[in-house]
Amino acid sequence: MDQLATFVINLDSSPERLSATAVQMDKIGLTFVRLAAVDGRRLDHKTLGIGAINTIGRQLTPGEVGCFQSHIKAAEAFLQTDAELGLVLEDDVAVTEHTMATLQAFCRDWPRQSIWDVANLARPAKRYFTPIRDAVWSGPLPLFQAHYMPVTTTALMWTRGGARAFLMMVQATGMRYPVDVQIQRWIARTDRGLACQPAPFGVRSEISTISTDHRRSSKGLRGHRLRLMHLIQIHLLGLKARLRAQGRLS
Question: N or C: which end of the chain has fewer CB within 10 A?
Fold first, then answer.
């Protein structure tokens, strides 16, 4: 799979997690490049995470800033290669019996398919999605166009165009949500996300060290207003998906 570049995001302080991930990759014979994760505790997270105040009612935590910056770094590293697809894994990833066959199908069928930018391979498609026809997908698991992308960033597959678009989006908007939620909302606008059902990767039981702190919930009137806006957006996404399935929306 020469067209695939694989990166594992791992904090310098967590060599044991890297070793555990290497065991997982050895099971399927997948080579990877370790990418040093960004430790948000060492950054000016109060400045970097301030853009989220107007979207989720609080600043991003140090762990969220570090996770976001790590995925920016991973997208940039992928674009420095000649590979057509970039697989970005966090160091709590687990392989399944369908992992390698799914990756092979992406490399065989989908490097140049024009309808996608990113695939979430560690969470199944849910809520609003459209099946991909078997004629263009030969993987072992059903593949869907995910109008409402699953959250978490344990295993993301990028196209080159998708990685560039992600970096341009972040440059234009800044970090306005945790990275998984920002990708979810971005894909809700572009409709260029994929997911399988079930997911070809899993997650090991360890607590994440890349995002080392728990998210604080939004509080007060602003938090209630933002959650209401989010529910409205979910409803509109569902309506859009139903219209598309009925052929009434291109």
Answer: C
Non-local CB neighbours of 205 within 8 Å, separated by 6+ positions: none
CATH code for residues 4-215: 3.90.550
Any idea which of 44-58, 95-109, 236-250 has the lowest mean pLDDT? 236-250
* Residue listed under structure tokens 């044991």: 16
Q: Closest Cα partner for 71 from 54, 47, 89, 85?
A: 89
pTM, full prediction: 0.84
pLDDT band at 229 (very low <50, low <70, confident <90, very high): low
Q: How confident is the model at residue 4 (pLDDT cuts 50, 70, 90)?
A: very high
Contact 193, 146 (CB under 8 A): yes
Q: What is the pLDDT of residues 133-161, one digit of tens each?
A: 888 899 999 999 999 999 999 999 999 99
